Amino acid sequence: MLALLTIAPVGYLLWRRREQPAAPKQLVLTFVGGILVWLATMSWPLGPHGDYLPWQVILAGAAMVALTVALAWRLPAEGVAIGWTAASGFALAWGVWAGLQDDTGLWGVGLIMVLLGAGTSLALVGWLTGVIGQRRRA
């Protein structure tokens, strides 16, 4: 389920953009960046009972937005794909951790929530960055 929800969409985006010279490399960089953001900010829960602290969540969100903006600015036509790919990398890292920690099986619901919430938000950020970047270049 984890691979189906996180890696398969990235593979599809890479396949669809295989003819564009910069897009596949940018999307792979974004996917890996999402994984690295999770590792840097969320892989060490510090709160009681292993919960995340609010500043960790804020830092992770800010880093994901910064990653999306930076890479969508370089390739404005791919802003939406960059947002979804960043969210997929983050969700993959979270899903591996959650799947190993959870004995109830509810981590799958959390994975879907992370993908939909982060994916939609970052796709919007990537799209807006792309639109602004294209207008500034024109």
Secondary structure: elements and pairs:
Layout: H1 2-16, H2 23-41, H3 54-74, H4 79-101, H5 107-137
Q: What is the total number of structural domains?
A: 1
SSE string: HHHHH
Please tally the helical runs, counting DSSP H or I stretches of 4 or more residues: 5
Derived from helix and strand composition plus strand pairing, the structural class reads mainly alpha
Please give the radius of gyration in angstroms.
15 Å
In whole angstroms, the N-to-C terminal distance is: 43 Å
How many DSSP-defined strands? 0
> Sheet bearing the most strands, described?
none
Beta-strand content estimate: under 5%
Described by the principal axes of the CA atoms, the overall outline is: globular
Low-confidence stretches: none
Helix content: over 70%
Fill in the keyword field for this structure.
138 residues, mainly alpha, globular
Task: Characterise the protein shown here.
This protein has 138 residues and is mainly alpha-helical. It has one domain. The chain contains five helices and no strands. Helix 2 (23-41) packs parallel to helix 4 (79-101). The radius of gyration is 15 Å and the shape is globular. The N and C termini lie far apart (43 Å). The mean pLDDT is 90.
Short summary of the structure?
This protein has 138 residues and is mostly helical. It is built from 5 helices and no strands.
